[in-house]
Amino acid sequence: MSASQPKISVFGAGSIGCYVGGRLAAAGADVSFVGRERLATEIAKHGLLLTDYRGADLRISSGDVDYRTDPAGTADAGLILVTVKSGATAEAGKTLAGLARPDAVIVSFQNGVGNAEILREAVPGRNVLAGMVPFNVIRRGPGHFHQGTEGALDVQKDEALAPFLQAFGQAGLPLHQHADLAPVQWAKLLLNLNNAVNALSGQPLKAELSQRDYRRCLALAQQEALDVLGDAVIRPAKLTPLPPSWLPFVLRLPDALFRIIAGRMLAMDPLARSSMLDDLDAGRATEVDWLNGEIVRLAGSGSPAARVNARLVELVHAAEQGGRRNWPGDALLERLQSPR
Ligand SMILES: NC(=O)C1=CN([C@@H]2O[C@H](COP(=O)(O)OP(=O)(O)OC[C@H]3O[C@@H](n4cnc5c(N)ncnc54)[C@H](OP(=O)(O)O)[C@@H]3O)[C@@H](O)[C@H]2O)C=CC1
Ligand SMILES: CC(C)(CO)C(=O)C(=O)O
Questions:
Q1: Which of 140, 161, 179 corresponds to the end of one domain?
Q2: Taking the CB of residue 257, how many other CB atoms lie within 10 A of it?
Q3: CA of 63: how far to CAs of 16, 37, 46, in Å?
Q4: Atom of ligand 2 at shortest distance to CA of 277?
Q5: Which residues, including other chains, have CB under 8 Å from residue 131's CB and lie 6 or more apart?
Q6: By its UniProt entry, which InterPro entries does this protein fall under (predicted)?
Q7: At what angle do helices 329-337 and 212-231 cross, to 10 degrees?
Q8: Is the domain of 15 the same as that of 151?
Q9: Do 159 and 33 fall into the same domain?
């Protein structure tokens, strides 16, 4: 990478931040990471190992990884990638407001549809862009982050990204720019409705989605969301081979038919899991309020139009508080179908 390439900083470097930032650094970009002490210690000992489902195997020795707990590490960056969970966005924004260069571009690589706006409000005067990460990343071991599913990074189109496009391309993570990212974000949110089902199942994504009862739970949540989005005249983009409106029908198919028609949905690392299952296992608050909760908000709080998603929010919050986990598919389906 040329010496004049502006620096890239990752704010909130966990699974996504270490993977995306690590791939950029492995391809020669000047990257700094801001995150927590436990990862700083881990990476200082083991460095970074970045692998993917296509066989990529990239190592960066600890001496070559600039991972700090001090957010001042973002002060000289031309591009800041925000990769904290949604509940930490406002706080991240407050920190960045006092640090980010006036000409810094800030990209939210987070799930949900509202994080870029939260950052825009918290970091006035900076160019904040929405982004979307379609693929799954799991931490496989100390300093080891693995991309288990396919997809390219999406981002809101902006000329200010021009100096960085080459770095993402060379890292094997080309940026796909969209004039309007909102339809892409809503389409991703429809897929992320599965995070709650997956977290409540306690199983890896492949095992969960291979079982019809869990898919029927997801179909209920997606159909409800599609209806709510339709009422709000929001049209999600087509991110999967099948259009979003077909997904609930396909999800309900018996296992054998589902494997034939939508086998690609199961083409993933058998250990891949949703970020929400990671959160529950780690005892952290989840993003359910920014995913299923977004459908509840759009329908109008308490509206029967979002009953299933409201129930999923409730069940995930109960699980966060030590309530029931590892729901079998049939029990979860019954709970979501029950009127009360
Ligand atoms: N993991 C995945 O496969 C995917 C995740 N996403 C989305 O990407 C985003 C990031 O997810 P993911 O990487 O899994 O999350 P992680 O929890 O792995 O990483 C976020 C990290 O940021 C840290 N953090 C939070 N606030 C601060 C702060 N103020 N200063 C420094 N560090 C901070 C967190 O620490 P702590 O926990 O201690 O607060 C955590 O280590 C989410 O919106 C998620 O939904 C999208 C696609 C796939
Ligand atoms: C990639 C996907 C849909 C599932 O891992 C995700 O976004 C998440 O885990 O939050």
A1: 179
A2: 12
A3: 21, 16, 10
A4: 9
A5: 81, 107, 108, 109, 110, 116, 153, 154, 155, 156, 181
A6: 6-PGluconate_DH-like_C_sf, 6PGD_dom2, ApbA, Ketopantoate_reductase, KPA_reductase, KPR_N, NAD(P)-bd_dom_sf
A7: 30
A8: yes
A9: yes
Query: Is 16's C-beta closer than 6 angstroms to any atom of ligand 1?
Result: yes
Taking the C-alpha atoms of residue 39 and residue 37, their distance in angstroms, rounded to an integer, is 6
Q: Is the CB–ligand 2 distance for residue 147 below 6 Å?
A: no
Any residues with CB less than 8 A from the CB of 21 and at least 6 apart, and which? 8, 10, 13, 31, 33, 81
**pLDDT per residue over 32-68, tens digit each?**
999 999 999 999 999 999 999 999 999 999 999 999 9
Mutation pick for ligand 1 pocket among 9, 11, 15 (CB with most ligand atoms within 8 Å)? 15
For residue 2, tell me if it sits in a domain.
no
What angle (nearest 5°) sits at the alpha carbon of residue 204, between those of residues 242 and 11?
85
Instruction: Let me know if 160 is exposed, middle or buried by CB neighbors in 10 A (0-12, 13-18, 19+).
Output: middle
pTM beyond 0.90: the answer is yes
Q: Is the pLDDT of residue 2 over 80?
A: no
One domain, residues 267 and 214: yes
